[in-house]
Amino acid sequence: MNDPSIPTLADALLSWFDRTRRDLPWRQNRTPYRVWLAEIMLQQTQVQTAIPYYERFLSRFPTLADLAQADEQAVLKLWEGLGYYSRARNLLAAARQVMREDNGQLPCDFKALRALPGIGDYTAGAILSLACGQQAAAVDGNVVRVLARWSGTAWSAKSLQDRRQAADFVLTHMPAGRPGDFNEALMDLGATVCLPREPRCPACPLAGGCQAYCRNLTAALPLRDKSPDVPTERRLLLLIAAPGFWHVRQRPPRGLLAGLFTFDWLAPDQDPRAFRTWLQGQDNVLVQPLPSLTHRFSHLAWHVDALRLGLPRADLGELAAWLETDGPQPDGRWAGRQELQQLPFPAAVDQYRRQELDEPPKTASP
Ligand code: SF4
After folding, report:
1. What is d(CA 37, CA 57) in angstroms, rounded to the nearest whole number?
2. Ligand 1 within 6 A of CB of 266
3. pLDDT tens across 254-298, in order?
């Protein structure tokens, strides 16, 4: 039998949320478009990092119709530094689809939302509960953690089946009338109190009924899966510069960092040692080593070595034979300073462009 002195999950959570809710820009005027944009940005990005990006994005594209008309490059530029650029491309594709098929209104319907590019169960649940007022669960890793601990259940955030069970659990406890607040309260608790490593249980509004806290299981729940090792690719980046110009290359329209710009790469079928030997014989190329870096993507890591190659004029000459020729413009092209500032570069190699332009490093580089 339940202890009547312990408030229900919903009562405890919502009264805490009413006292402490964070004032975040996407919590004002919760339209489906604004909620959607926020949830997509927050998928791989910390709240504080996302705020300025969110505000810039909305001031440039205040409505879904504005976004649908945008040029992909302008959207990617606004996303620059946030990483996981497929999120931005999917936003644009989904906005265009909604304009074509739904009169420019994001549908308040689970199946229709899930049919849009980039919208999964979590984002659909967030839009439905926060902006449409529907009883829908929005379960991410934070929410699985809170609920696994509170209920003492051996769930793992990586298991689809466990996430579905957690979603059913949310719906069982969600109070009628406040679905969005209930989901946001769970998200906030996971982000600020029920932390992965050192949960702040004495300050938690759910401590009285929390199984993990009462049974000393907070370190064991949720179940943790080791993040898998990912293969590492070694790449040689070639920053080719001539007076007033830099040679840039757009990535292919599909695959890793699709559509973004980078400097050049040594072609995969070229031997880096043979290339360095060849360089030694080139009197007109000023070679300068740049710092190496390692950048980890979700499924792959790049170890990037880099050389700056200074040319007397904007002409690749024999150098062209060594370069990767993948992408919409196999020969790449020359960009002046202003264009180099405006092209969308991925975080993986943006530090080289910033050094070149004397720009300070970005704080957000997931
Ligand atoms: S009491 Fe501790 S473990 Fe339980 S929900 Fe609160 S912060 Fe998490």
Report:
1. 9
2. no
3. 888 888 999 999 998 898 889 988 998 999 999 998 888 878 787
| pLDDT band per the 50, 70, 90 thresholds, residue 106 | very high
How many residues are given for the chain? 366
Condensed to tens digits (0 to 9), the pLDDT of residues 164-178 reads 889 999 998 999 889
Task: Report the sign of the C-alpha dihedral through residues 195, 196, 200, 201, in that order.
Answer: positive
Give the 3-state secondary structure of residue 23: coil
Q: Where are the alpha helices (DSSP H) in the chain?
A: 9-20, 32-42, 47-60, 64-68, 72-79, 86-101, 110-114, 121-126, 141-151, 160-173, 179-192, 211-214, 272-280, 337-342, 347-357
pLDDT in tens, 208-241: 989 999 989 899 899 886 556 678 888 999 999 9
Query: Is 233 one of the annotated active-site residues of the chain?
Result: no
Give dist(CA 210, CA 206) in Å, integer.
6
Taking the alpha carbons of 320, 322, 241, 243 in that order, is the dihedral positive or negative?
A: negative
Q: Are 96 and 127 in contact (CB under 8 A)?
A: no
State whether the beta carbon of 261 lies less than 6 angstroms from ligand 1: no
Domain with CATH 1.10.340.30 in the chain: 9-214
**C-alpha–C-alpha distance, residues 268 and 272, integer Å:** 9
| Residue 210 alpha carbon to ligand 1 centre in Å | 6
Cβ of 50 closer than 6 Å to ligand 1, yes or no, is: no
Please identify, in words, the CATH class of the domain defined by 9-214. Answer: mainly alpha
| Nearest residue to 56 via CA among 30, 83, 74 | 74
DSSP lists the bridge partners of residue 242 as 245
Class for domain 232-357, per CATH? alpha beta
Residues of the chain with CATH 3.90.79.10: 232-357
Closest CA to 39 of 108, 119, 132, 147: 119
* Candidate from 189, 192, 204 with most ligand 1 atoms within 8 A of CB, to mutate: 204
Mutational pocket test of ligand 1: of 146, 169, 198, 221, the residue with most ligand atoms within 8 Å of the beta carbon: 146
